[in-house]
Amino acid sequence: MSTRGLIEVFNSKNELLTRIYVHGDMYPDNGMMCEVSRFLSKRLLVNGIPPDGHFDVVNGMDNLAALIVAHLVHWNTKEIRRFSNVKKNDLAAGFVYLYPFNLDIKDTDVEYIYELHPMMEEEKLVYPGGAQKVLDVVRVVAKKYEWWDGTGPTDVFDGTLRDFTKQYCKI
Predict the structure, then answer these.
(1) Which terminus of the chain has fewer CB atoms gathered within 10 Å of its CB, N or C?
(2) DSSP character for 149?
(3) Is-contact 156 144, C-beta < 8 A?
(4) Which of 90-94, 136-140, 162-166 comes out lowest in average pLDDT?
(5) By the 8 A CB rule, do 110 and 20 touch?
(6) 3-state secondary structure of 85
């Protein structure tokens, strides 16, 4: 059985920007959040795209959410190709979905929820002087949900993405 989960991305006003459902491997130890950390590890969180490149920055938390979705769809496609020997040059359906904000978590099959919050106002991240490493300025709040046994959410982690990576990931 897959360990399903959500990645919720918030802006600096603590407004929910997106709710990303991931169909498997959402446990903390070397799960999909570690893949997300790997993907973001060399990127800077900025406000505005610098003139010298688009590939080493994340332009705000809304762009962070979009890049996470794109990366996970691409990652899943590579995995399907690897295990099924499919040669199609297309993206695979499934594995990653966007869930509505008004969905009650109790009506889902998620086991983990990871909230991603910026640790500073995004307006202050103007490139180059304000740019910060994503791993250092994104806070992860992780919870384990076990609705089936009535215990509800249990706190798993609260800290920077870098600290999450150090604790749970083999990068």
Answers:
(1) N
(2) G
(3) yes
(4) 90-94
(5) no
(6) coil
Please work out, in degrees rounded to the nearest 5, the angle formed at the alpha carbon of residue 100 by the alpha carbons of 98 and 104: 120
Among the listed residues 144, 143, 121, the one whose alpha carbon sits nearest the alpha carbon of residue 132: 121
List the end-to-end C-alpha distance of the chain, in Å, as a whole number: 25
3-state secondary structure of 11: coil
How many whole angstroms separate alpha carbon 85 and alpha carbon 75? 15
H/E stretch holding 38 reads helix 32-40
**Which run of H or E residues covers position 136?**
helix 134-137
SS3 state at 105: helix
State the number of CA atoms in the 13 A half-sphere of 28 facing the CB.
20
Give the pLDDT of residue 98.
96
Do residues 154 and 146 make contact, with C-beta atoms less than 8 angstroms apart?
yes
CA angle (117 as vertex; 132, 141 as ends), nearest 5 = 120
Question: Is residue 157 over pLDDT 60?
Answer: yes
Residue 34 has pLDDT above 60, yes or no: yes
Report pLDDT for 122.
86
What is the pLDDT, as a whole number, of residue 1?
A: 57
- Could you tell me the pTM of the whole model? 0.94
Output the six-digit token pair for 118: 């910026």
* Coil/strand/helix, residue 22: strand
